[in-house]
Amino acid sequence: MEKITSRSNDLIKYVKKLSASHRARVQERKFVLEGARLSFDVLNSVYQPDIFLITEKAAEKYEKQFEDMITIANSAYFISEEVADKLAETESTQGVFCVCNIPDGKNQLVIHQKYVALDHLQDPSNLGAIIRTAEALGISGAICFNCCDIYNPKALRASMGSILRLPVILSDNLVYDIECAQKNGFSFYAAVPDKNAVDITKIDFPASSVIIIGNEGNGISEPVKAAADQLVTINMLGRAESLNASMAGAIAMWEMLR
């Protein structure tokens, strides 16, 4: 396997650009995973590894995963510790990186399943945390409308690999998608900090349900609220007026699955 030792190598510049730039990820249809856990999670996902980069020290430490990765990646390279430091988005790198292809196919809602929809969520850490919680609880997938890039490094890390496993639907028009899904028997519930909304603990969620979580500052947009079947709220006994988006999402998804 070829070893790359120069921080100014063209391939290293390319990988760094993919990691740093949303536009580059969209144009190239690729994204970057950093770290042993995230990179090797690809082995149990639908994603195809394109470029695999690893230090010799890491290859010795993760011998089995290393051997599995080089058999399925389109190309693989050893990199020096200095190059690993150049690529790292984290403070302390493990020396493992993987460039993956973004799938061309579009996931679809499946009847008699429960989903979470995210409306204009902009914090990648919140997005990643919600998707991680969704997978942990048994939610069937996530719908993202005008959200931050799901392949942002912060979102990937916050999801702890769940983005690689949980089906994600990227919506161009959430109101239209809601209306289409409602015709197929889905019910949509908009989580809002409104005392006039129905207490979420009182809802008997049907088999085909979607809970909607809104933007961190502005909540769910008015057209999306209008399209939802019902507004629901998480009643709070304290003086806080609202919850962090990822916390609200966790509670709402738990209630939907109860």
Structure report:
The protein has helices spanning 10-20, 22-28, 36-41, 56-61, 63-72, 81-87, 124-137, 153-159, 174-183, 222-227, 245-257, and strands at 3-4, 30-34, 49-54, 75-79, 96-101, 114-119, 141-145, 168-171, 187-191, 198-199, 209-213, 230-233. The chain has eleven helices and twelve strands. It is elongated. Helix 1 packs across helix 2 (22-28). It has 258 residues and is α/β, with parallel strands linked by helices. Strand 7, helix 8 and strand 8 form a beta-alpha-beta unit. The chain has a seven-stranded parallel beta sheet with strand order 8-7-6-11-9-12-10, sandwiched between helices. A five-stranded mixed beta sheet has the order 1-4-3-5-2, sandwiched between helices. The termini are far apart.
- Mean pLDDT equals 93
What's the story with the biggest beta sheet? 7 strands, parallel
Whole-angstrom Rg: 20 Å
Provide a count of the helices: 11
N/C terminus separation? 51 Å
**Structural class category:** alpha/beta
Number of strands: 12
String of helices and strands: EHHEHEHHEHEEHEHEHEEEHEH
Low-confidence stretches: none
- Strand content range: 15-25%
Note the overall shape: elongated
> What is the oligomer described by this structure?
single chain
| Lateral arrangement of strands in the main beta sheet | 8-7-6-11-9-12-10
Percent helix among the residues?
Answer: 25-40%
